Amino acid sequence: MSILITGAAGFIGSNFVLQWLTHSQEPVVILDKLTYAGNPANLQSVWKDPRFTFVQGDIGDSQLVAQILNDHTPLAVVNFAAESHVDRSITGPAAFIESNVVGTFHLLEAVRAYWGGLEAERAAAFRFLHVSTDEVYGSLGPCDPAFTEETPFQPNSPYSASKASSDHLVRAYHHTYGLPVLTTNCSNNYGPFHFPEKLIPLVLLNALKGKPLPIYGDGSNVRDWLFVRDHCSAIERVLEAGKPGETYNIGGCNEKTNLQVVETLCAILDERSPRPDGRSYREQITFVKDRPGHDRRYAIDASKIERELGWKPAETFESGIRKTVVWYLENQEWVAGVTSGAYREWVEKQYGSQA
Fold first, then answer.
1. Alpha-carbon 199 to chain mean position
2. Cα dist. 79→10, 94, 151, 152, 272 in Å?
3. Annotated active-site residue in 58, 83, 87, 135
4. Strand 213-216 vs strand 3-6: parallel, antiparallel, or unpaired?
5. Which of 112, 116, 228, 276 has its CA 20 to 30 A from that of 294?
6. Catalytic residue among 159, 173, 216, 328
7. Is 134 a catalytic residue?
């Protein structure tokens, strides 16, 4: 019984594949377009595993997806494939509509046709799990209750709007066609293999290079931080026991301001990899112009998944962030490979001389 995982050369998807193959004998088929954030090196340790099959391609290629489904006959599809960086969506929204909305539509159509042709027992066991984000819910005030699965969508960026659109499509395919779908909405992930345009890996790499540590605005934007391996375990649990048609919020129960996150990173680096001059990495913190429409606070109420499926995060922010720093310090070859010329051009465009 194989499983098809789309977007699995990216940050969360690759962690999911690696975690899945540590305890499951079921083969995995990977479909990834290998855009800037899709890195085959993330999957290097399992590349020759007989349970692992990689296909380079787009979820929007209906013919290719149909061929993969018919050749490998998976009992589940887990969809990680998405453009996922808010800053990139502001400067180039078209790619987000194409991948996250149109691509998800074509994927759903191919999966619906495949599922409709399965014999009854396999059709009943089949699942399509769509991985989404808490950003679809909008922004919270300082004292607002956390997002629940019933919170109305109020996306504020082209990225979050495209993900909200894909969530609605997935829901519609369940209610209209009966496709057995599951949706997860997660908070901010961090951990190994994170592409270094996001806050935590960007700060880590800049710190080690003696460069400024750029923080948007005044650093008071709040996010709920979720260690990526906790996220992967939650997805596995939803895939195993989630009720078709339901949405499950996945959070780390770790609300931190961006400034708190950066200061924690600096403290760990001061301990694990001190500056040659003996001074703190905190001296490299630099505040830069805020991005347009920057949401102030996200917070996830993950009580439903704990109550109904028995899942809760294993890592605190303190334990997870320490593991993350250690991973980056011990995997400098991966870091060197991912920080290509294209990545440098992007960072310079976003942060200018402060990056």
1. 14
2. 12, 20, 22, 23, 36
3. 135
4. unpaired
5. 228
6. 159
7. yes
3 state DSSP class of 224? strand
Of 75-84, 144-153, 208-217, 332-341, which gets the smallest average pLDDT? Answer: 332-341
What tokens does 284 get? 């490299």
Give the model confidence (pLDDT) of 99-148 as tens digits. Answer: 999 999 999 999 999 999 999 999 999 999 999 999 999 999 999 999 99
What tokens were used for 224?
């709920």
pLDDT band at 308 (very low <50, low <70, confident <90, very high): very high
Sheet holding 76-79, edge to edge: 52-56, 28-32, 3-6, 76-79, 127-133, 181-186, 247-250
Query: Which tokens go with 100?
Result: 């996250």
38 and 110 Cβ atoms separated by less than 8 Å = no
One-letter amino acid at 67 equals: Q
Nearest one of 314, 322, 22, 84 to 192, comparing CA atoms: 322
Q: Is 343 a catalytic residue?
A: no
According to DSSP, the residues that pair with 224 across neighbouring strands are 255
**Domains of the chain with CATH codes:** 3-187+227-251+297-315 (3.40.50.720)
Cα(304)–Cα(307) distance, rounded to whole angstroms? 5
| Distance (Å, whole) CA 169 – CA 154 | 16
Read off the pTM. Answer: 0.94
Nearest to 115 by CA among 73, 79, 64: 73
Can you tell me whether residue 236 is helix, strand or coil?
Answer: helix
Nearest Cα to Cα of residue 174 among 139, 129, 207, 214: 129
Decide: helix, strand or coil at residue 141: coil
Catalytically annotated residue among 32, 87, 134, 167: 134
Alpha carbons 195 and 67: distance in angstroms, whole number: 30
Is 218 annotated in the active site?
Answer: no
CA diameter of the chain: 68
